[in-house]
């Protein structure tokens, strides 16, 4: 029975996480994998070439050796393992799984702050720090999404928790209360 893409990502991501933790290189591997993910997202041809069944393994190893030369031995070994087991097409999902495990280990969360106007980095950091403190996290990485329709305030979404402090939501609640009172 073939494994689903999610099962493959979970197994390989967990294996890489366990290995990096044993070797005490969680942080450096996380940085390298994020850099690799960014490079792959900018140039998806890398994955197509390294998972192409037409190319033989010698050609793929040559290509991979050029890509991985600046990475640590741990990441190089991992990338070669993916190539040997023909799992390179799952690389981004595997990196995401590793990142999720890393974030859990380090009490880090990621979220989206939706605002009517763009927030600067300092505002995002203060908002993230406030949330992290309230919910016992070491850190919260926030991306800013602009939606002028919320009028003002902020909608903060972290994992499955949504905190809606938008003016639009407050006006909606006031309207509902006025309709209820009549």
Summarize the structure in words.
- The longest helix has 18 residues.
- With 182 residues, the protein is α+β, with helices and mostly antiparallel strands.
- Strands 2-1-3-4 form a 4-stranded mixed sheet.
- It is 60% helix and 15% strand.
- It has 8 helices and 4 strands, in the order ααααααβαβββα.
Pick out its properties.
182 residues, single chain, alpha+beta, four-stranded mixed β-sheet
Brief characterization of the structure:
This protein has 182 residues and is α+β, with helices and mostly antiparallel strands.
**Inertia-based shape:** elongated
Q: Bin the helical content.
A: 55-70%
Count of discrete alpha- or pi-helical segments spanning 4 or more residues: 8
Number of strands: 4
Largest sheet geometry: 4 strands, mixed
Structural class assignment: alpha+beta
Cα end-to-end separation: 62 Å
Uncertain regions: pLDDT < 50 for 5+ in a row? none
- Rg computed from alpha carbons, rounded to a whole number of angstroms: 21 Å
Order of helices and strands: HHHHHHEHEEEH
Percentage of residues in DSSP E strands: 15-25%
The side-by-side strand order for the widest beta sheet comes to 2-1-3-4
Average pLDDT across residues? 93
Subcellular location: Cell membrane; Membrane
Protein name: ATP synthase subunit delta
Membrane topology: Peripheral membrane protein
GO molecular function, one term: proton-transporting ATP synthase activity, rotational mechanism
């Amino acid at each position: 029975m073939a494994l689903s893409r999610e099962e493959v990502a979970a197994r390989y991501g967990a294996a890489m996480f366990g290995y990096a933790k044993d070797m005490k290189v969680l942080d450096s591997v996380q940085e390298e994998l994020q850099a690799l993910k960014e490079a792959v997202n900018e140039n998806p041809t890398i994955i197509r070439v390294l998972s192409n069944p037409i190319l033989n393994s010698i050609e793929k190893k040559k290509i991979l050796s050029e890509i991985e030369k600046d990475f640590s031995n741990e990441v190089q070994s991992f990338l070669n393992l993916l190539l040997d087991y023909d799992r390179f097409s799952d690389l981004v999902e595997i990196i995401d799984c590793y990142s999720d495990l890393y974030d859990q280990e380090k009490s880090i969360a990621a979220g989206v702050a939706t605002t009517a106007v763009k927030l600067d980095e300092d505002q995002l950091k203060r908002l993230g720090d406030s949330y992290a403190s309230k919910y016992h996290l070491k850190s919260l990485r926030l991306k800013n999404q602009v939606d002028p329709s919320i009028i003002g305030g902020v909608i903060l979404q972290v994992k499955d928790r949504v905190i809606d402090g938008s003016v639009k939501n407050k006006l909606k609640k006031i309207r509902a209360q006025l309709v209820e009172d009549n």
